[in-house]
Amino acid sequence: MADSSDRVPSVVTDPEDFNAVLEKLNKIDEKIEFVNSEVAQRIGKKVGRDIGILYGAVVGIIIFLLYVLFLAPMLGI
Questions:
Q1: In a 3-state reduction of DSSP, which class is residue 2?
Q2: Mind listing the pLDDT tens digit for each residue in 22-36?
Q3: What is the H or E stretch that residue 28 is in?
Q4: In this structure, is the dihedral angle defined by the CA atoms of residues 60, 61, 64 and 65, taken in order, positive or negative?
Q5: Which is more confidently placed, 19 or 75?
Q6: Which pLDDT score is estimated for 30?
Q7: 23 vs 9, 12, 30, 36, CA distance in Å?
Q8: What pLDDT was estimated at residue 53?
């Protein structure tokens, strides 16, 4: 009852052709990794910029509040 669908397909290829295809696939993989890393780096720069703006705003507000609450009453302004 060995059906033809039960057999494992086998292919015989020339090792040189197989190696050439593997080299092409490796080059494509390297290009994809490079593009992905560039995209991740750009996203990281944008996130870093946004966090820097947020920290700057928070520090500015804290300095302003410290001035208004403590330094201005001492100076009588």
A1: coil
A2: 999 999 999 999 999
A3: helix 15-66
A4: negative
A5: 19
A6: 97
A7: 24, 19, 11, 20
A8: 98
Residue 68 is classified by DSSP as: I
Round the average pLDDT of the chain to a whole number and report it: 90
Q: At residue 21, what is the residue type?
A: V
Q: Which two tokens stand for residue 27?
A: 């080059």
Provide the whole-model pTM.
0.60
Give the amino acid at 36: N
User: Residue 11 corresponds to which amino acid?
Assistant: V
SS3 7: coil
What token pair was written down for 2? 């060995």
Dist CA 46 CA 54 (whole Å):
12
